[in-house]
Write a structure and sequence with these properties.
heterodimer; A: alpha/beta; Rossmann fold; 4-stranded parallel β-sheet; 15 helices; globular; B: alpha/beta; 10 strands; 51% helix
Chain lengths: 397, 463
Amino acid sequence: MTVKTLEVIRKRLDERPDELRKARANGQKVVGWTGYNVPEEIIHALGFIPIRIAIGGDDRLVEVGGRYASSKNCVFIREIVGAFAENEDPYIQQTDVLAFDATCLQNFRAAEVIEYYFKRDVVVLGVPRNFYWEEGQEYFVNEANEFTRLLEERAGAKLDTVKLAASVALYNDIRKTLKSIYFFQAAKDNVISWEEVFDLIQAGDLLDKKEYLILLQETLIELQELQPDPVIEADGADGRIFISGSLIPRGDRKLIGIINAVGGRIVGDDLWTGILPHLDLDIKEISPAGVALGYLNRTPHAALPYLDLESDRRLKKLHELIDESKAQGVIYHTLRYCDPFTFKAKETKDVLAKSGIPLLEIHTEYAGSDYEAMRTRVEAFVEMIKIKAESAAEVAV
Amino acid sequence: MAKTALYEYPAELREEFEATEDIHFRDGSRATAADVWHFMTEIGPKRYPFAYTQKKYAGSRLSRDIHLPSAIKNHYLLLTMNDRINKSRENGAPVIFVQGGQSVDPYYAAGGIALRPASVGLWARGRHEGLGLNEEAIRSRNQREKANHAISFEACQTAGYANIQEDDLPVDMVAPFTCLRCSDISYGVEAHRHGPNKAVKLMNIDYPMRHQADKPWAVEYFARNLRRLTSEIGKRAGREVTDDDLTKEIKLHNEGRRLAIDTAELWWSADLPPTNGVDRRALYQMGGMEIHGDPSASLTVLRESNAYIRERVKRGIKAEGVVDKPIRLFVCGSCVFPNDFRIEEAGAIIVGQDNHWSDISTLVAEEGDPYQNLAHAILSYPYEQSIEKRAEWTIEQLKKSRADGVLFLYQWGCNTQSAIARMLCDTIKRDSGIPTMIIEQHEGGSEQSEQLLNRVNAFIEML
């Protein structure tokens, strides 16, 4: 059983680089953004075409990027720098302006390196580490206003509130539809896999937003027809895996492929290239400040330190999503030198253990050299949670 | 195995040394030069034999420039850290973990004691007496291992986690600046939340970035972070912190900063290096008035040293163990530096370092709102600016120090300094023509690996 709209989306992605080329030839500008609190609606409302720069999985580009940054930067950042160095990625080639945020300090450094060596026009949004303080929120509002001003200069136009309201409405609809689609992948007898939804989410980083919403709505209608009454239910032999940790961008499917290959079924994630950034984004006011605060007040990214374990919303959200997806174990993915997640691996494991949820940390990079080591560990983990779930089911009977 | 004999200060030096000045502490007490001599010759070798090692390249060994009183007094202050910090705590001064390369005026203004990682390490080390060099190295490595286990093996800076969480070192607050100097620091602070010591108060003093000193809202934000900081420390010290307290502290610390700048300029102006590299670094760092956990003590030693350096420069006295015309190296990068003893053996000397010097050489305005003044100064640290600005400042220091070459050194796992190493070096080469070399330091203790030193030596040879 296949969801036909997914084929359409794949085709549209193939056509997208050419489309961008033509749009730019007609005077439109493309903003490539990367980060965790970049208010994309502002970019969209100013008439830019927003493209998320999130690529991974290419060890060669990591090596190239390391020559400009360093071998001690996370592989994702190195690959981005490497991609700008080579300038062969069809999306990177089409960017006129870059928008980075300082949620992750390495992301901030990447902006500096790209600006310095590749002479790209970069706008940076400062992000407070004390994001939960009133002072931090005020600082971020000022940064968002400055970010808007810098983009207005590049757009040659002021931000129009009516256009911003339209962009916010469009993005809200996208988020709402994605959330509905996401439910189907975790359901019993699912007609769409988590992997397909993951690709679908990442297609939104690149496609035209209005068209993307239509495609999402068509996907949802199809899913509702194929499975009118989806129920999320744990099956003893499912091997239901939740993926957490460092982002997994387009191009990087190593871990996902291994989980599939050893018989695990991914049913949920809290990745920043997955569903998480689309959840709980509540924009209370149509203004740069309102949009920015909506972003900052979502579930926080791990790069923003939070000093009280008990009230950490990131961990609460992780628990909530694991419960919803009826996952039986967590694979916590950490990229080499990704401090925001690596520093919290043991802590997250200890916290989840209290709820009886097993966690396996997979620390990796984009080279293929650790493939078999990863496979052995993931296979053992999947087997372990399957046996545990089956034993629990037998006891219940 | 027979124990190696420990280093002994020559007895004939005693009279000359005892005629030097007292060390004045913040609580009004003082240590006379005779007290210092007694500790360093009688007590120190028994309690802290590792410092008296005869091993030539041990980074922690005492300076052999015995006619420079500050060298002995500096070691005295480092070796008495445990006694002094415990006493201050008993008298009600909370201890706050900070990071290196930041000024500490607000911490002391609020009645606290600010200790950077090295100082916290010295305090913790002081609690384990009778250890020889190898035993101390093993203890220190074990601590590092504990922190790596509790946080991550990729952690370079763990915010004192092992000492504070695993070994009950009574630090009251962990509240460093979160600047780009160290990317690990804020995650290190966060890691304390899962440790057993729930009494320690955690705070990040949030350092905005990207043209931060030019943004009024960024200065305001940082000033408000500082206000929260002094208020929290004040609560623990049992006092209300006024603006006047901070102004007074800024003036005191400016005195240290000015004295360090003056000392550095004197040192740099000399035809013959007036001290070895270890003592030079100690002198410059005393201007930050934080390494000893007592700004008054650092200041009195620095004042006295300044006069000695002036005299040495005037009389053309060269430090012992340094060649006549050494290759002059300026070190950039993160919180590490090459082994001075090996550098000097190879015919070079380290004349300066951007880390620490960036904050020490940044004076704070004394008129007006002290929080705004301090925030503006701190956000202006050259080390934290855009690459072009940082390079411009570094080149200025290279010219003043008459450096022949630049070593950019960073610690394994240091993300944010390593990331700009090439950019900074390329800009320096482009704008000044001064050769540069980038080196990553793997953990290997103060003696450092042969591989690292071979590369440094090759660079020195090339220069």
